[in-house]
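STRUCTURE:
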């Protein structure tokens, strides 16, 4: 008589009567475990540590980490630079996000046209701004909107119009930075919208055509409602990215946001407080405040989307 030495995992019987092993139960959790481990190590861990640093007068060298409670947050709320940076950030966000979403929807609708030729070429061309190094993009736009040279100055002089110093005032600085953001991210959002439009069942377009709906009616009554979750996704991601804008104002103005702070954003202020003034506790408080601002705006986007869906 022979005996089997093969080990088998203990089995349990599910509600449906099927025998499932312990391994089968825990396999899905093992598959998704790497994401949560990376999030704990590089996401939640640094976030909690930033919150802890924001409650201290934190010095980079030595062990002089004095607990100050909410003093850094009080200093932040009473700092006029913080409110100016927040206004600039929100202005750039509005000036860039709204046109970017509108252009992306329009371009996606054009690319979704069945009679369009060279579709692959146009889709690849839309990704060129997104894969171009951000430093290169900023330097090129800085040259384009230069005060004493560049195409924009040449056009204004040709039309006998006054030359604009684009980096002098808050409005013109924000417009230039918003144009950079629009140029960089419109193609990316266009491809996301295009993928969502192509997932819309063709039968819905056929029914709209039979009912005599025109292109605009079909777009507003069929396409937009069907891709609403995708629009919400792009709005949320644009909110997160727009409120964290850093490289464009840094290179177009200066690390301090310009002489009058016309290009100062929240992340630029955070960077200056941490690595120029070495006030890491205050910089951490700004980071936590920015986190809550992004969360609030994201919740507002979800609430607005829910109201539109229920109406």
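SEQUENCE:
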């Amino acid at each position: 008589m022979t005996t089997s030495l093969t080990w088998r995992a203990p089995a349990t019987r599910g509600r449906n009567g099927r025998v499932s092993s312990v391994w089968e139960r825990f396999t899905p959790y093992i598959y998704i475990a790497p994401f949560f481990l990376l999030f704990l190590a590089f996401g939640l861990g640094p976030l909690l540590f930033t919150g802890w640093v924001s409650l201290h007068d934190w010095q980079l060298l030595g062990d002089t980490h004095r607990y100050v409670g909410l003093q850094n947050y009080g200093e932040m709320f009473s700092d006029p630079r913080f409110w100016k940076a927040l206004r600039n950030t929100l202005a750039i966000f509005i000036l860039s996000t709204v046109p970017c979403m509108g252009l992306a929807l329009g371009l996606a609708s054009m690319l979704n046209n069945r009679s369009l030729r060279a579709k692959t070429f146009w889709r690849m061309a839309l990704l060129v701004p997104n894969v171009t190094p951000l430093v290169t993009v900023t330097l090129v736009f800085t040259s384009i909107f230069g005060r004493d040279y560049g195409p924009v100055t040449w056009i204004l002089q040709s039309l006998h119009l006054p030359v604009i110093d684009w980096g002098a005032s808050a409005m013109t600085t924000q417009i230039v930075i918003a144009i950079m953001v629009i140029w960089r991210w419109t193609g990316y959002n266009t491809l996301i919208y295009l993928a969502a439009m192509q997932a819309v069942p063709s039968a819905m377009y056929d029914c709209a055509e039979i009912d005599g709906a025109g292109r605009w009616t079909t777009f507003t009554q069929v396409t937009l409602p069907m891709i609403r979750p995708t629009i919400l996704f792009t709005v949320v991601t644009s909110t997160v990215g727009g409120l964290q804008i850093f490289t464009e104002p840094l290179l177009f103005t200066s690390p301090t946001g310009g002489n009058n702070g016309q290009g100062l954003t929240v992340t630029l202020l955070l960077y200056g407080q941490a690595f120029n003034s070495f006030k890491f506790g205050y910089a951490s408080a700004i980071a936590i405040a920015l986190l809550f601002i992004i969360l609030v705006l994201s919740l507002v986007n979800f609430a607005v989307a829910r109201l539109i869906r229920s109406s």
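REMARK: The radius of gyration is 26 Å.
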